[in-house]
Amino acid sequence: MNALTLIITPGLDLISAAGLSVEFCGHTVRTFALTTEGTRKDRTIQTMSVMGPSVLLGVALTNLPGIVCLNWANAQLIEIFFFRMNFVMTLLGIAHGLILLPVILAYFGPNANKMKIYEEQQKAIDELGRTRSETKTDKKTDSMKMKAKGSTKITPTGPEYGDLEESAF
Questions:
Q1: Can you supply one Gene Ontology CC term for this chain's record (predicted)?
Q2: 98 and 129 housed in the same domain
Q3: Are 6 and 52 contained in the same domain?
């Protein structure tokens, strides 16, 4: 049982590290890639003004209080594998996501690919338009069904309403 515990806990730390890396770096890189105005340094400044507070407050300051509480655990296994490892991962994530990554993006980041960004925006707009047109079509179909049944009033249906059915007046 002891050997199994020592295999599982570093595995959990690796899974946690993968998730934290996305939280600390992935959102910042995506925002940088979608920013089109100015030079790389300008884009980095704009990216960090948008994502910096979210990364700091949303990830770092929500993880740290929970991790610090593990310091007072009675089990040495929890203190070593969960407190120390997660604390170090969070501190390294903060340093990498808020200090090192912006410097790397400012000097070595890719140039803005305005055409690709434009195509992605158009694709999103087209999908939104299709969703809206499908909703309008569904409403027309529903109103036609109501007229065919001769009903003028619809009562809400679903489990939250006690599965009431349409009532006709």
A1: plasma membrane
A2: no
A3: yes
Q: Of 32, 83, 87, nearest to 60 (Cα)?
A: 87
Segment 8-29 shows an average pLDDT of 89
Q: Please check whether residues 65 and 147 belong to one and the same domain.
A: no
Quick check: is 107 in a domain?
Answer: yes
Residue 140, token pair as written in the block: 């027309």
Residue 16 is encoded by which pair of tokens?
């946690």
- Given the structure tokens 């990830």, which residue do they identify? 59
Contact 87, 60 (CB under 8 A): no
Q: Are residues 59 and 100 in the same domain?
A: yes
Decide: 29 and 105 in contact? Cβ < 8 Å.
yes
**pLDDT for 92:** 93
Q: What is the pLDDT of residues 102-156, one digit of tens each?
A: 999 999 998 887 777 788 888 888 888 877 666 666 655 665 565 555 555 555 5
Going by C-alpha positions, the residue among 114, 122, 102 that lies closest to residue 46 is 102
Contact between residue 28 and residue 101 where contact means Cβ atoms under 8 Å apart: yes
Q: Which domain holds residue 53?
A: 2-112
pLDDT in tens, 56-88: 998 888 999 999 998 898 888 888 888 999 999
**Residue 14 and residue 79 in one domain:** yes
Q: Is the pTM higher than 0.85?
A: no
166 within domain boundaries: no
